[in-house]
Amino acid sequence: MASDNGQLALPPGSSVTTTSVLGAWARPDKPTGLMNWVTTVDHKKIGIMYGAASLFFLLVGGVAALMIRIQLATPDSTFLSGDAYNRVYTMHGTVMVFLVVMPIGAAFANYLMPLQIGARDVAFPRINAFSFWVFLAGGLMLNTSWFLGGGPDGGWFNYAPNNGIIYSPGHGIDFWNMGLLIAGIGSMTGAVNLITTVINMRAPGMTLMKMPVFTWMTLVTQFLLLFAIPVLTVAQVLLAADRNFGANFFNVQQGADPLLWQHLFWIFGHPEVYLMILPAFGIVSEIIPTFSRKPIFGYPFMVFSGIAIGFMGWGVWAHHMFVSGLGPLSVSAFTVGTMFIAVPTGVKILNWLFTMWGAKIILSTPMLFSIALVTQFTIGGLSGVSHAIAPHDTQQTDTYYIVAHFHYVLFGGAFFGFVGGIYFWAPKAFGFLMNERFGKVQFWMMVIGFNVTFAPMHILGLQGMPRRMQTYSAVQGFGMWNMVASIGAFILGIGTMLTVVNLYTSHRAWVRQGRPNVGADPWDARTIEWSIPSPTPEHNFDTDPVVTHLDDWWHRKYQKDENGKLRLVHTGEELAQAGNGEGVHLPAPSYWPITLAFSLPIIGYGVMYTFWLLIPGILLMMAALFGWAFEPADNLDLDDHDHGHDDQAGGAEKELETV
Q1: What value does the CA radius of gyration of the chain take, rounded to a whole number of Å?
Q2: Per-residue pLDDT tens over the stretch 556-582
Q3: How far apart are CA 412 and CA 291, in angstroms?
């Protein structure tokens, strides 16, 4: 029988493990074309869809950024009205934070983490599909605000009382609230899924301290999501009650305290900064050792510093509120906490530097982007530590100095790491190498464009330019540096979009030249996802890998000779699995996850516009839940399948026959 999430339900006392259950499913007639992607529960395809959706929203948020820079390039500009500027500014920040950087991290986590721990898939494949579709549904709903009365205008942090019905009477804030509320459901369900996967589905021999650094950073990120998103959800439910049902949680006229919103938002918001940057830290922690030809320096320190960042991130939220009147005692406490959290971050930077120290570094495109993350994030981190000093922060808050700091951390840090990760793992995902010469041109365009854009904003902030200023006069002296920043923004925008151009042109060149898929291990890498063919087979591994070392794949290729020196014993291609997948049974596709996900925006529109829309939304949701709950496990007549080629699947078959 099937459980409520489509997993096979077995009687109590059965010895079938989660991994075995996944191996017991048989995939029926598989849809093709678009329906293959719509109904897929394959973690790899879901990871690719997360990435594609993030790149689409990057285009949306990037266009908004360029509109801002056109408006600010010259004094007294009338390109955008004040109202339009507020909406564009709000949507740029919201889209980039919630719909670009966070889901790109989810793309890497979904695709790579099961491969790095030797699993067939995630613990709950259909819930994984639901997580993606509900994120996409929320993101699309948010962006329909442009066509249904205008986008939100309260800033990406949407402070009270500006988010109330009195100061923002249209539906823009409602779209912000409902869209992110729905997308947050995907983050929470995805977090539970990935945490369960890491804890229960690691390959034999893979202890926690043998997991790759990326998997560790993914695990920490999922715990941050699991506990941070509900805090924001509480704030959003209260705001929805205020705006749609006449409640007074943030209504100052009725005696409410608007600081409640700030506390709730930043209790979520500061851990969110780390859940955006930690996946990128994990990515460069895999790339730097590969191209330095050395193991990561101080692996335990890398792991525990990531855990420390996740833990300490909960104790520094109020440094965003130093000018809100918290009082000297609170300000002092959060000042100390903010200074301390720089320590584990500094540990990571030192570990990366010591990994590269004395190495024969290969300056490939992934390595260049990883080095850029280390340098640009360090700049952003130093300006961030300076904000722990309350008088310093008081002068610079709500100026362009903060804008510069934030972008050095999240774009110069997280996004550079993600682009490096795309270049690094593209062979594993797509079967071809991206063009290196093209990649290096893109790298220099992005680095130069990034610094030309955001370095001048430090100066503008110190000159006193507010970060939400719609225009300025020539006598204020902001013109020159704003023009420089605007020129840099267009260079950066072109460089960023070259990621997609390189993917497309590299694929076309690879196909036109008739090249076979790139080998399993083109980088001579260290972790076990490189032990399987490229692109990754649908079933991942022919047999369960057995792990004996940290960086186990590297240890299979290199061993010490009689003189104690490491020598290449086998190439990756010699050791790689064949990837035929005979006898491996996988979870079946399902259209219930997407059906359930897109019922939620209908309910959201009903709350905003007319309760009559609640009826079809709730009916669709109930139908999807009913269909999901009673969707049978597929093809349990295991005698019809080949039993001789997969130990895991064969063992599951025997156990199920006994059941």
Answers
A1: 25
A2: 999 888 887 888 888 888 898 887 777
A3: 21
Whether residue 226 is contained in a domain is answered as yes
> Tell me, what amino acid is at 278?
L
Q: What is each CA distance from 315 to 160, 269, 339, in whole angstroms? A: 22, 12, 11
Q: Which two tokens stand for residue 313?
A: 């991130």
Question: How many CB atoms neighbour CB 294 within 10 A?
Answer: 18
Q: What is the DSSP letter of 457?
A: H
Report, as an integer, the average pLDDT of 55-69.
97
Tell me the C-alpha distance between 603 and 598, whole Å.
9
Which strand (E) or helix (H) includes residue 566?
strand 566-568
Phi, psi of 543 (to 5 degrees): -135, 160
CA distance 374 to 412: 9
DSSP string, 320-373: GGTTS---HHHHHHHHHHHHHHHHHHHHHHHHHHHHHTT------HHHHHHHHH
Beta bridge partners of 560: 566
Is the model more confident about 360 or about 657? 360
Residue 472 has which token pair?
């300025």
Task: Name the residue type at position 456.
Answer: P
Over the chain, what is the mean pLDDT? 89
Are the C-beta atoms of 467 and 575 separated by less than 8 Å?
no
Residue 637 falls inside a structural domain: no
Start-to-end CA distance of the chain, whole Å, equals 12
d(CA 348, CA 109): 20
Nearest one of 142, 176, 136 to 53, comparing CA atoms: 136
Determine the pLDDT at residue 71: 97
Number of independent structural domains in the chain: 1
For the chain, give the number of residues. 659
Q: How confident is the model at residue 10 (pLDDT cuts 50, 70, 90)?
A: very low
- Residue 364 included in any domain: yes
Residue 421 token pair: 């990760």
How many Å apart are CA 144 and CA 649, to the nearest integer? Answer: 45
> Does a structural domain hold residue 411?
yes
Helix (H), strand (E), coil (C) string for 85-136? HHHHHHHHHHHHHHHHHHHHHHHHHHHHHHHHCCCCCCCCHHHHHHHHHHHH
Domain around 148: 28-584
Q: Any idea what the CATH number is for the domain that residue 198 is in? A: 1.20.210.10
Instruction: Work out the number of other CB atoms within 10 angstroms of the CB of residue 562.
Output: 6
Residue 342, exposed/middle/buried by CB under 10 A (0-12, 13-18, 19+)? middle
- DSSP characters over 259-284: HHHHHHHHHHHHHHHHHHHHHHHHHH
Q: What percent of the chain has pLDDT over 90?
A: 76
Question: For residues 592 and 324, what is the distance between their CA atoms, to the nearest angstrom?
Answer: 46
Residues 147, 209: contact at Cβ < 8 Å?
no
In angstroms, how far is CA 403 from the centroid of its own chain?
A: 21
Query: Can you state the angle between helices 592-608 and 125-143, rounded to 10 degrees?
Result: 30
Q: Residue 377: its pLDDT value, please?
A: 95
Whether the per-residue pLDDT at 9 is higher than 60: the answer is no
- Tell me which DSSP letter residue 437 carries: H
Distance CA 121, CA 183 (A): 23
Residue in 582, 579, 575, 587 with CA at minimum distance from that of residue 541: 579
pLDDT at 62: 97
pLDDT single digits (tens) 67-116: 999 999 999 999 999 999 999 999 999 999 999 999 999 999 999 999 99
> Rounded CA gap, 247 and 164, in Å?
11
Who wins on pLDDT, 385 or 491? 491
The residues, ordered by sequence, that sit 6+ positions from 363 with a Cβ below 8 Å of its Cβ are 291
pLDDT tens column, 225-245: 999 999 999 999 999 999 999
